[in-house]
Amino acid sequence: MKVAAIIAAGGSGKRMGQRKQFLPLAGKSVLEWTISAFKNASSISEIILVVSPDDLERAENLGVKITAGGAERQDSVKNGLKLISSDFDIIVIHDGVRPLITADIIEKSIKEAKEFGACIVGVPVKDTIKRVGDDLFIEGTVDRDALWQAQTPQAFKYEIITRALKKAKGKGKATDDAKLVEDLGIKVKMVMGSYENIKITTPEDLVIAEAILRRRNVLS
To answer: How close are the terminal C-alpha atoms of the chain, in Å?
Structure first.
């Protein structure tokens, strides 16, 4: 079984004021931690990094294949997929700004994708969820028992994600890769991830991420 990973790292970092994937985190960049996790996953035989066209030069020394992203996430994933030959069986797609992903979870997503065709990593929602109107008054409380927070990686059989991206052309942006597969009528399996698998979005996330890395004893 041949498995390739596409790491989507083309974000502009508007909320951080800079490219968050290149921010320093405990001696490395956020992106270096992410790539390292995939290099430690034994099933991964190829890694494609998708970055903004402006970041191609600064990504050259990261030790993986790189390509430029597109206008939307699905365009970026499609660009990454162009560098992967059709003899690959499973494609794993991951956010470049989720540096705390582990090889174990990556391997679990691959195993589930092999069995079910499509899967995503996530965690059950812990907080109470309120539905709020435009006037900011609460309109109702959502039953959280069946709600999960989607994360990445999201893993798919090559044929499935290729078909989903082709069908999605010109239909606007999707919230994640799994949505494109759902639109094909294909069931997507949820795989238990980790509450530590956070997405670096705000400065506070960097503080939390470094604390987690220190607890894991992976810092020199």
So the answer is: 35
Contacts of 69 (CB under 8 A, 6+ apart): 8, 9, 10, 50, 51, 52, 53, 75, 76, 79
pTM of the predicted model, to two decimals?
0.93
CB within 8 Å of 128: residues ≥ 6 apart? 141, 144
The number of domains in the chain is 1
Q: pLDDT tier at 19 (50, 70, 90 boundaries)?
A: confident
Which CATH number does the domain housing residue 112 bear? Answer: 3.90.550.10
Q: Is residue 146 part of a domain?
A: no
Residue 151 has pLDDT above 60, yes or no: yes
Does residue 20 belong to any structural domain of this protein? Answer: yes
Domain that holds residue 74: 3-120+152-215
| 127 within a domain of the structure (yes/no) | no
pLDDT at 13: 52
Q: What are phi and psi of 72, to 5 degrees?
A: -120, 165
Cα–Cα distance for residue pair 72/203, rounded to 1 Å: 24
Residue with tokens 């405990």: 26
Distance CA 67, CA 80 (A): 7
pLDDT grade, residue 16 (50/70/90)? low
Q: Is 99 exposed, middle or buried (0-12, 13-18, 19+ CB in 10 A)?
A: buried
With a cut of 90, say whether residue 5 has pLDDT above it: yes
Is 36 exposed, middle or buried (CB count within 10 Å of its CB: 0-12, 13-18, 19+)? middle
